[in-house]
Amino acid sequence: MSKTALVSSSSHFTQLLSTSKIVVVDFYADWCGPCKAIAPVYEQLSAQLSRPRKITFAKVDTERQKDVAQTYGVTALPTFMIFKDQQAVSTVRGADPRKLSEVVKKLAAEADSDGSGGFGEASSANPEWSGASLPRGYEDVTDQVDIRGLDLLNANSSFGDARTLFNGSKPSALASGKGKADSSGDEAQKDWVESDTDEQLMLFIPFQSTLKVHTLQVTSLPPKDIGEPADEVPMKPKTIQLYTNRAHVLGFEEAEDIPPTQKITLQPQDWDSATGTAKVELRFVKFQKVSSLVLFVSDGDGIGEKVRIDRMRIVGEKGEKRELGKLEKIGDQAGD
Known about the structure:
single chain; alpha+beta
């Protein structure tokens, strides 16, 4: 079922703006070919990022809601507008899936911040729970993760997103003792990531400063004793490939063609039985000046078709602060 709201009137549109911190709007028409071409991308963003009272995705049929389109000066289709606190803050004109995804994901991250920073500023995690001890001489540097720049491919939208992995709270699976959410099936309890179409996951992790990365702590808590066939139970990651200092997330085929900075194969004994956490020690000399990591889970440990990750922690040393780029407003120039 789509989470996107179809605007039925000017008053309905005003209501949406007043009841959600951020509203993303697709101005379209049924006769518009580019509108139809980019519609699946918009629906996917809606499914992944919608949050009650925080992030709302809406569509405005410019043929039926001409007053709304005229009010916001829509002259080209498709036009995407993003509103924060009822004010338009960014516009994307044209069917550009990459630009739309980039702008929406950066702006959507603002809805989960504490409001202390403006758009384009860094947002960081606040580690509280850790599934393993720290190696001597190193610290938890997860607070240097640039949460707004995270990108995750092949994640099932019914579960958590990339930000979930760096949540400082104790995984709900440990709290329940069952490796799964409570019996109510509340979406808020699904605080982990699961792969979607197969067992692979691709995660892009940018940092606010240049780091020396010593260890990754990966927590995976697949459910136990749930009476399901073994091939339907999600697996812990087995093979992980790491790539340093990439500008963006890699495609799956692209990653297969690029030699990784390090390839790790996790064994069953690497996982702590109490916390479900594996300490992935890196070849430290290769991770001395790291501004970003791409983590590629290529397979899982078992016969299942999905992989699950509950939490991640970055351990190492903080370096020089990296200047984060300002968010660009798109389509403000005349004639765009």
